[in-house]
Every structure is written in C-alpha cells, then in structure tokens.
Amino acid sequence: MENTTGSPHYWRFCRLGGFDQVRLETAEDIRHLGELDQKLWAALSCPVNGLEFDARTLAMLDTDRDGQVRVPEILAATKWISSVLVRMDSFLAGSNALSLQAIDGSQAEGQQLLASAKQLLSYLGKPEAESVSIEDVTNTETLLHDSKFNGDGIIAEHAGEDEAMQKLIAEIMACVGSEQDRSGLPGISQERLDAFFTAAELYADWWKQAKDSPAILPFADQTTEAAAVFARLCNKVDDYFIRCGLAAFDAKAEAPLNPSPTNYEALASQDLAVATVEVERFPLARIEANRALPLQEGINPAWSPVMERFTALVVRPLFGEVTQLEAAQWQQIKETFSPYAIWQGRKAGAEVENLGLERIETILRGPGKNLLEDLIRQDLQLAEQVDAIDKVVRLVYFNRDLYRLLNNFVAFRDFYVQDRKAVFQTGTLYIDGRACELCIKVASVDGHSPLANLSRTYLAYCECRRRGSDQRIFIAAAFTGGDSDNLMLGRNGVFYDSQGNDWDATVVKIIDHPISVSQAFWAPYKRIGRMIAEQLEKFAAAKDKAVDSKAGAGIAAVAAKPAAPPAAPPPAPAAPLPFDVGKFAGIFAALGLAVGAMGTAIASIVGVFLALPMWEMPLAVGASILAISGPSMLIAFLKLRQRNLGPMLDANGWAINTKARINIPFGSTLTKMAMLPKGSERTLVDPFAEKKTPWKRWVFLLVLLMALGFAWNKGYIAEWGKQIKTHVSDQKTTTPAAKQ
C-alpha cells in the first residue's frame, strides 16, 4: 500500500551490537520499508545456500537466480505482500497458516489469489477451510504431477491420449531433448516440437534426393553397408597399390616394402589371436611389381573377413566373379562411391536419424504434430490459473518466513536479542567444557579463514561427520568465553545442528585471538610456569642423556677389554684419599654467595614491604599484580572491543553493511561455560586425590636448615638483620620529616 496520507513515517531504532538497528514491529514499518535509507540496513545481500532458513522461500526471493538475495528483491517481496494482505497479524507472527480473510479481496490481484487459494483447498478436499497452511502448499508439485496440464506449455509423456502419442512424445525427447515442467517431469514444449518436425522433414528430403538419383545409391538398399566396408578398406587398398607401384619403379624396394623376418620373429612369441593390431599393420597381400590385389588367396588374415564382405557387396555386383582386383578397377570403385560421399556430406536432420527413415516418414504422414500442438494449447490455457496457485504458494511462504528474514537482514535482531537463533547460526558446538552457540557453516576452511581473521575473534574450524554416513560439513565456531589452554588441533567435540542431529567434530584449524580478560590476567603467570617447566625438562633430559652416554661408554669399554690374566692376589688396601677441604669449601662458598644474594634481595623487598603502613600493603600487592598482568589485560581488552561479526559473514558471501560488534558482555552469552546447577550438593573430598607425602616437607626443612646454618656460620644472617634494622630506622626517621 502507498502512503496516501503524505505524512512521513517515523522509525524507531535501538542500540544493539554497537550500532543503531531499526525496529520492525508494525505493519506500517513493513509497508514503508522502501523509504528506509539503505545505509541503515544491517546487510545488503545474503547467499541462498548455507543458511538455517527455508531454501524454498529463499529461491522464491532470488528472482534473478544469481544465488544471492539482495535489497531490491527484499523490497519487491515486502511491497507485494503488503499490497495483497489487508491484515498482517499472521505475517508479523510468522504463522504457518494464512487466513483467507487476511487476503485483500477489494482489488483484482487479491481476488485472484483468494479464488486460487479456494481452488487449491478444493483440490485438497478441504473446500470449507478458512485458511491455507504451509502443509497445504508444500506438495503442489505432487498435485500437478498427476495432472496432464499444469499451465507451463510443456507436456510430459503421460499427457498423450493413447499409446501412440505417448510413444511419439518419448521419441521427440530422445531426439531433440526435453524440458522440465512444473511437476518436475521431463516434457516437450512448442519449440522442441517444431525442432523435431523440422529435422524430420529435412532428413526425409535428404533421403528423397538419394532415391531420385541412382548414382547416389549404386547398390540400392545395400549401398550404406557397402559404403561402410569401402570406407574401412579404402586406405588399406590404396596403400597396397602404391607399394606395388613403388616395387615396379625400383625392384630393390620390393623386399623392404614387405614384412621383414624380424617382424615375424617379434610375432612368433606372441598369441596371434591377440596380436591383431600388429598383423593389421602388414599390407593386404604380398607386394610385387604391378601385381593385382588377390581377393581370395594370399590375403592378410587380419583383413580376410572384411575383404570377403567387400567382394560380395562391391566387386561382384560391378565386375562379376573375379579372383583379383586390378588398379583400374579399384579407381572405378572409388568413382562409384563419390556421389554417395558427396550426398553424405549434405546430410540434414541428423537429430532424428536413429528413428530410421521408415519411422520418420510414418510420423510425417500422421496427425501427430497437430495433436501435440493441440495438447500444448490446452496446457497453456491453464497458465493463468496455475500461476495464481504459484502466487498463493509464495504468499503463504512469505507470510511465514519473510518477517524473520527481515530481522536477520535489515536488522540483526534475532542475533542480538537471542529470542531465536539467527539464520546464519547453524548449531551449537560442545567442546572443552563449554557450548559455543555462534557456529557458522563454511564451504571451505582455507577460503573462509583469511577474511574471518579480521573479525578479531577466536575461531576454531571443525570438520563434522555423521556417524554411519559419508556426510561431512565444516563449521567455524567462535569462542567468546573461557581460555584456550586445552584448545588444539585434533581436539574432538560434538556438534548439534539446528535440527538436533549430532555430529562428530574435530578441530582442523584455529585462528588465535584473545578470548577473555580473565585469560589475559593469568597468561603471564602461565607463560612463566611453562618456561620454568620447559627449562627443568631440558635440564633433566640433558642429565638423563649424559648418564645414558656415560653408562654406554662404560659398557663399551668393558666389552672391548681383552681377557684378563689370572687374578693376582688382592693388594693391601690403599690408604683413603685425603679429603679436599679447599674444593668443598669453594663449593659451599659459591652456594653461600648465591643464597646470600637471593636472601639480600628478598630481605630488601620484605623490608620495604614491612616498612609500609598497614593500609598501603594491599595497594602494594595489587600494584605488583597489576604490573605483571596489567599490560596483557589491557591489550586483550582493546582487542576484545574490536570483535566484529561482519568479516565472518562476509567470508560466507554476505554483504554486511555495518560493524556488528561482539562486545565482552554479549560475547559471554554466546559461549556457555560449564556450571553446577543451582541447589547441587558438592563433596570436596576426593578419594583419588594425590596423597601428601611428608618426606618432601622434611627434605625441604633439612635443606633450609643447612642453608641457614651456613649463612649463620658465615655471618650473613647477622648482616641481613643489621641491614633490615637500618632500613626500618631510616624509614621511621624520614616519615615524620616528610609529614612536617
């Protein structure tokens, strides 16, 4: 409906995803959608494939069949449905059924739609129904499948009134092809019918030329077979006479022009029943100067059957019972077939040749063409009626689906409000103790990932397979909560699609971006822990390798020693080696220096911390933590604010018209973490927890006591105490001075 009041339509917007989104809530909003500036639309184009949306509705919207639904097509659909509906309650509700009273019967198109809807319901055996539903229009192809006529000008085989007509329709489709009618069956249109009969007439005229000229068919009905045999032998006979001519030209050429003994020796070890090709390469007969071609004896065995047929079809009708063929006679045969070859080059109507001339002439004499043209005219008479039924189908589908598409195209309301899944959300991935609800189906991981990387979102590409099936899909799952410690290539999970089907999912590619601020907080400590663990592993591995090498060398040395002479009486026990006091003193001195340096540093830090007022101590601890984790958290926070849905959809063929952000609060709703249900009981006693071993504690205390004893012996502890007292006294004297 047009805006007849002349007053502007006032739009309402809401702030979602960091941009203003129009609120399409009333029938007036739908009717005036064409007035909304396209710069305010969330998307300008979307693909018809890969969406969790009815494919038939998308196909109806894609009027130019380019695989994309664009703004003009959306506007045309909304304008049409607004013009034929007097009430749009069911449209805004996305109802499966459309009340007949909602159709505007006050204008011509509405009247036609109303009549067609009632006729359709009558076909279905529900003439008293007051609404038409999706179930009623889903199987319109089935209704048309059994009908001879469906208004598209294409008649299927079963449209023939008798067996002869059905046979003719099948023959036409076999010769010139077919087209698919509305019911999905192959059939013929007026264009196909005309093409067939044109070809049939040309083919019949072409054969008439041959029948009117005896020179074209010198062997009557056997000319075609004779010509085929002639064509098979033509080059071989020419080769024979040329070789004989060369032998006459030079007697020395006769031997080389015949097969050599070497050729026969190569064949001697083969199965000659299989080596047909090699034998066929030999001449038709033995080459001699000016020799005629024998027709019975002395023929190459590989060509003997063909020569017998050639003699029967061509030689005898022309020359009688002869046993050899002269070169002049061969030239006469070639001239005999020349008119036939010219006629063959002018062949017309080859499309129908497989039917045979007799069948083609029968068809041309019969009334088949007129009868088929009459059937096509009867079919076209229903075009307007069937087109109206198609409009009813489109109206019912648009009534259910179009409003939902608007909230995923003009605005992204379904995605941000989350009262239902957006059309691009294909399911939920369960992996690593969380559920990722932003999963997008992708055609190619390598094709999607470069552009999707610009979304600044942590994406895990998964290959999904159905158990007991060859079905396979790829998805891109967005992780917006938790951490990435246990996410890695090859990790397995379970994907549930929008229909509830479960798929085995395996991570095949990861695009790494920050997932959360909490992950960034712990990241520095985890890096330090990993670094220490790696160094310890390297140290342990090096020591283990050194021990293995030393043991191996020792074993090899023992094995290499010669047999020892009889053992001599054991010598007197040697005096014990003197204890190297200097060496061990140096070791303990180095250890003491290291412990002393560490102790000094710790003492300095502890001293400064203890000198702080009580209220400053928590601030000092917080400042230390902030100094370590702050930079990582700040970088992560800035990157998380840049997360954008647009590149993920653009990589799938969408044309996103805005920056659809996925901020931190909204991102937390897209990835659900594992949590215990409310009211659950939890027992903290783990019967399989690692048992605490006291020996570790005693070893630690022993080492600590040894270090303290060494430090006391060297006077380090006394020195540390003096430093701490001096530092504390300095702090106490400077603090009052600062206050004054």
Lay out the secondary structure:
Layout: E1 13-16, E2 19-22, H1 27-31, E3 43-47, H2 55-61, E4 68-70, H3 71-84, H4 89-93, E5 97-99, H5 108-123, E6 131-133, H6 134-138, H7 140-145, E7 155-156, H8 163-176, E8 179-180, E9 186-188, H9 190-212, H10 223-249, H11 254-257, H12 261-268, H13 276-280, E10 293-294, H14 304-319, E11 324-325, H15 327-345, H16 357-365, H17 368-380, H18 383-406, H19 413-417, E12 427-431, E13 434-436, E14 439-442, H20 445-452, E15 458-465, E16 472-479, E17 492-497, E18 502-511, H21 517-560, H22 581-611, H23 616-640, H24 646-650, E19 655-656, H25 664-670, E20 671-673, H26 694-714, H27 716-739
Antiparallel strand pairs: 1-2, 3-4, 3-19, 5-6, 7-9, 8-9, 10-11, 12-13, 12-17, 13-20, 14-16, 15-16, 15-18, 17-18
Helix pairs in contact: 3-18, 5-18, 8-9, 9-16, 10-14, 10-15, 21-23, 22-26, 22-27
Tally of separate domains: 5
Low-confidence spans: pLDDT under 50, at least 5 residues?
none
The averaged pLDDT comes out at: 84
Radius of gyration: 47 Å
Main β sheet profile: 8 strands, antiparallel
Shape: flat
**How do the strands line up in the largest sheet?**
14-16-15-18-17-12-13-20
**Total strands:** 20
**Helix fraction bin:** 40-55%
Beginning-to-end CA distance, first to last residue: 83 Å
Oligomer: single chain
Q: Structural class given helices, strands, pairing?
A: alpha+beta
Strand content: 5-15%
Number of helices: 27
Annotation keywords:
3-stranded antiparallel beta sheet; single chain; 20 strands; 5 domains; 8-stranded antiparallel beta sheet; alpha+beta; 27 helices; 740 residues
